[in-house]
Design goal:
Elements: H1 14-32, H2 35-54, H3 62-81, H4 86-111, H5 123-128, H6 130-135, H7 139-142, H8 146-157, H9 159-170, H10 175-193, H11 202-209, H12 211-221, H13 235-242, E1 260-266, E2 277-278, E3 281-282, H14 285-291, E4 295-301, H15 309-318, H16 328-332, H17 340-346, E5 350-354, H18 364-371, E6 375-377, H19 379-382, E7 387-388, E8 391-392, H20 394-409, E9 415-420, H21 447-471, E10 478-484, H22 496-506, E11 517-524, E12 531-532, E13 537-538, H23 542-550, E14 571-574, E15 582-585, E16 588-591, E17 600-603, H24 616-634, E18 646-647
Parallel strand pairs: 1-9, 1-10, 4-12, 4-13, 5-6, 5-9, 6-18
Antiparallel strand pairs: 2-3, 4-11, 7-8, 10-11, 14-15, 15-16, 16-17
Helix pairs in contact: 2-3, 2-4, 3-10, 11-12, 20-21
Domain Sulfatase N-terminal: 259-552
Protein name: LTA synthase family protein
Subcellular location: Cell membrane
Length: 650
């Protein structure tokens, strides 16, 4: 009976008034419990939770006008097509979108980019580095799963849930309403996606499109462009784009000819660690000593991307740029890659690579086969004694590796050994028995503090390695090149305490231009003592520099890096930790917006000011270099499945 028709009673006049209030409340409750409305509100709140950490100055209308239209397209289809399982489809969508938003936040906090479906390639790696993943979690991010837990419990345990499910099945929205909402949602999604599809900056693109539209657009349009014909990819063209002028008599050519080559890749080492003192305490004394004994390049930058450590191994050994969307080992692992190990083998070298983790981590079994190493040494060789994170400590790594190098040195052939350290891996919480320094109280319990302590231990191990090389008679007969594999302190992972400590260390606010700066040093045969080299360099330049010192020509070997000892100018493209199209040159880091015109400039030097020194011509030449590299590698022949390097055994 409607309240308006309720019989009046002189004794109880309030009854009609109360029913007039109750009925609208029931109507509102009925509306809110309809899946279309309920899950729209739930996922709208989650959209705001996800946007907060990813996008700066989130507009109040952002998730409402970008995420909701995408969801309404799905919801309209559920209302139109589904019947008995309609509620199940809503709940599955809620679970999947919640997982996507949560993953986007965690991924951005480490990489500084918006996740896409290619991150599925990293699912196994995420399990192995679970400590790193958990360290990025903040309690408030877990609230995004609250409704799923509550609804799931209520769904299976409450008697009212059965009645709700029945009401959902029997209630169908008007087809006219559903059709109108579907058309409006399609129009809004098109307006969000189409004008922003050409944006260079993936973060800007995701903000303009909305995270869900961005993911769908990436999935549907992710196709490799037609590669540039190999005949058009020449070293002359590459050098011209980079502005390289080759010398007829390059300096240092053959300075270490016939010597062993040892390339040491140090985990998460940023350049600010060199010479760092905290409260008068020297953090990396061994690294500081080495910087004064050989060639030290303080203006050196990472070339790694999604694959992190394995990407660094790839680009150092090939002088190619990383692929645009995947880790190099995933995109190129099945290829027969031109590489430093193969080049040195042609010149009489034996080759091996050493890493204490399982060789299958980041598909290194594929990478080492593609690069052509003779042997690899992994966890099966180093064992599980003295574990730090997911492998034996750097102490074990260096002790057992130098024993093998001594055996290799007894041969009449020189060797090339790649050594990959790991003990200073994110999240840097090394065992207490590995502490080699007293951390100031203000650094305790912070990411910056843990990082410094882990690098201090890594430096202690580096000193052991140098001592072992000298004791075993390897130092005087070898050329040692060492560098950091990638950044250690992602800006987006740092809280207010971390940022304050970083400002104390750097003397200015920690910025994007500080993150990619890693050290590079050359020691031993052919390296001048105590020489600081100020030119710009990157990991892609290691191979040409090594070839020059060893007296090996690269005339018939395509490479995108340059010999740092004979070139003063450089142009360093960056991607993944920074939006595609980011470029380091001169005294500036340039990060594009939707394109070149609305890009942002960051100074590279302490106390400097960013100049607009990156020209549009340089920007376009950098994009062409990326395309040439990708086209060249994609057209390399696939590797025969039977070809794999030999596993080193004890």
């Amino acid at each position: 009976m409607r309240p308006g028709n309720f019989p009046k009673h002189p004794t109880f006049p309030h009854i009609e008034k109360e029913l007039c209030i109750v009925e609208p409340i029931k109507n509102w409750w009925s509306l809110l419990t309809r899946p279309f409305v309920l899950f729209t509100l739930i996922l709208l709140v989650k959209g705001y939770i996800a946007w907060g950490p990813i996008f700066e100055n989130t507009p109040i209308w952002g998730p409402l006008l970008t995420e909701i239209p995408f969801l309404w397209i799905l919801f309209c289809l559920f209302e139109w097509l589904a019947s008995k399982r309609k509620l199940l489809w809503y709940m599955i969508t809620n679970l999947l979108v919640t997982g996507l938003f949560f993953t986007a936040v965690i991924y951005f906090k480490y990489y500084g980019v918006v996740v896409n479906y290619h991150a599925l390639d990293q699912s196994r790696q995420a399990v192995e580095v679970s400590d790193s993943v958990f360290s990025l979690l903040a309690p408030q991010y877990l609230l995004i799963f609250t409704d799923i837990i509550v609804l799931s419990v209520w769904f299976f345990m409450s008697k009212k849930a059965k009645k709700w499910r029945q009401n959902v099945v029997h209630h169908r929205m008007s087809r006219r309403v559903v059709g109108s909402l579907l058309i409006v949602s399609l129009i809004l999604c098109t307006m969000n996606v189409w004008p922003n599809r050409a944006s260079m900056n993936e973060v800007v693109k995701a903000e303009k499109m909305g995270i869900l539209n961005y993911e769908a657009y990436t999935l549907l349009t992710d196709r490799d462009e037609e590669p540039i014909p190999l005949a058009q990819i020449t070293q002359e063209k590459i050098d011209g784009l980079k502005g390289i002028e080759k010398s007829g008599q390059p300096a240092y050519f053959g300075a270490a000819k016939g010597k062993n080559l040892i390339i040491l890749q140090l985990e998460s080492l940023q350049n600010f660690m060199v010479g760092l003192k905290i409260d008068g305490q020297e953090i990396t004394p061994n690294l500081n000593k080495l910087a004064g004994e050989g060639l030290y390049f303080p203006n050196f930058y990472q070339s790694a991307g999604q694959g992190n450590t394995s990407d660094a191994e790839f680009t150092v050994n090939t002088s190619f740029y990383i692929p645009p969307r995947k880790a190099a080992v995933v995109a190129y692992g099945e290829k027969e890659l031109p590489s430093l190990p193969k080049l040195l083998e042609q010149n009489g070298y034996q080759t091996a690579t050493f890493h204490t983790n399982d060789v299958s981590f980041w598909n290194r079994n594929q990478l080492y086969a593609a690069l052509g190493f003779d042997k690899y040494y992994d966890k099966s060789f180093f064992g599980t004694d003295d574990m730090v994170f997911f492998g034996s400590s750097d102490e074990v790594l260096y002790d057992k590796t130098t024993d093998e190098l001594q055996k290799m040195d007894e041969s009449d052939r020189p060797f090339y050994a790649q050594i990959v350290s790991m003990s200073s891996h994110h999240p840097y919480t090394i065992p207490k028995e590995k502490y080699k320094m007293t951390l100031p109280e203000r650094y305790e319990g912070t990411l910056v503090g843990e990082y410094i302590r882990a690098q201090n231990y890594s430096d202690y191990c580096l000193g052991l390695l140098i001592d072992e090389l000298k004791e075993k008679g390897l130092w005087d007969d070898s050329l040692l090149m060492l560098y950091g594999d990638h950044l250690g302190l992602p800006l987006h992972s740092m809280d207010e305490r971390d940022l304050a400590l970083a400002k104390e260390i750097f003397g200015h606010d920690y910025t994007y231009s500080d993150m990619p700066n890693i050290p590079f040093m050359i020691l031993g045969s052919g390296a001048d003592a105590g020489s600081v080299q100020t030119q710009l360099g990157a990991q892609v330049d290691v191979m040409p520099t090594a070839a020059n010192l060893l007296g090996i020509s690269l005339d018939n070997h395509i490479h995108f890096g340059q010999d740092l000892l004979n070139q003063s100018e450089n142009m360093i493209p960056e991607r993944y930790y920074w939006p595609s199209g980011s470029l380091i040159t001169g005294d500036t880091l340039f990060i594009p917006g939707t394109g070149y015109e609305d890009g942002t400039y960051y100074p590279l030097k302490k106390g400097g000011t960013a100049s607009s020194g990156v020209t549009e011509d340089q920007f376009n030449r950098m994009l062409e270099l990326f395309e040439l590299s990708s086209s060249y590698v994609r057209q390399q022949p696939d590797r025969p499945e039977a070809e794999h390097p030999q596993a080193g055994t004890e």
